């Protein structure tokens, strides 16, 4: 079976993990945690970062630090992995779901419409007229590593006084190479950025995440909350409820090794994308979705669009599986999940369209040319 996406662990990972083991520092204290935070911060060109247990934990902390409170609302996309949304529920806040546009990222036109027509600015903040609740933050996702329109998102959230949380779980390494954010990385442009190092992400720590924050004080507070909000490390005095969210030294050691390989991984992903795209662009039934033209995108996942009404997505998946090719549909839309089906969803139209017509095709950095050729041939027969 050619897998969809598997980790590539051929760098210094083993060396660093053995070093961490030998040092005896395997838990949340240890030099690799600091080193990973520093290496990530310097790669991302930001002053600091907080390494945590998962991308979900990073998003949760970002929402807490954005000031999201029980009974308030957070604007989220429906086309995303559920981890972009669940942290709102952890806090007791409600998601308001937005549609995607043709890039699969959050539709900024609809967001603007919603803010303009459905909300009112008051002295206590932006109020959603239909629910009478305060909206505190917007979570956007750089879907499959594709840079969202940060210029518009910053302008809109600035205008309406909302915090902007970038779920950059899939977009490590994506940066603008033109425009007003030239040189800036996905996850470092909003108020907060969350990354994930889950096993299928572009680099992995087995499980893990990282938070960046515009404001250095927020970052310090994130680290404090992630370490059980411990105010006195000898007497164990805590003045608020914290979380056990710190990354361990072993995870960080893996991460330091993986980060050294990131640029190579992106080059491979770019080359494989071009190779696929060359072949697929001449097929009638399929095309590959493009990435943001203003950015160097990490091209984490490739989206194969089924360009034929008569061709069923599940049938395509099945035919490819019979040829030992693993693919998968996009996540079931979050506004249709049982826990969220009664939440507000604002004119969701494109997300179901794309959900029905896109599958992700194998994109591991260890893909061989003969694998890609086999996949291309299998597609050409459908
Ligand atoms: C992977 C992912 C996350 C969070 O991942 P964790 O598994 O908690 O590290 C969040 N959002 C998106 C869009 C993701 O793909």
TrEMBL record:
Name of the molecule in the record: Aminotransferase DegT
The organism of origin for this protein: Lacrimispora celerecrescens
Keyword Transferase recorded: yes
GO molecular function, one term: transaminase activity
InterPro entries named in the record: DegT/StrS_aminotransferase, LegC-like, PyrdxlP-dep_Trfase, PyrdxlP-dep_Trfase_major, PyrdxlP-dep_Trfase_small
SUPFAM superfamilies xref list: PLP-dependent transferases
Biological processes per GO annotation: polysaccharide biosynthetic process
N6-(pyridoxal phosphate)lysine carried by residues: 201
UniProt keywords, alphabetically: Aminotransferase, Pyridoxal phosphate, Transferase
NCBIfam families the UniProt entry points to: NHT_00031
Family statement drawn from the similarity comment of this UniProt entry: Belongs to the DegT/DnrJ/EryC1 family.
Superkingdom field: Bacteria
Residues at the catalytic site: 201 (proton acceptor)
CDD domains the UniProt entry points to: AHBA_syn (cd00616)
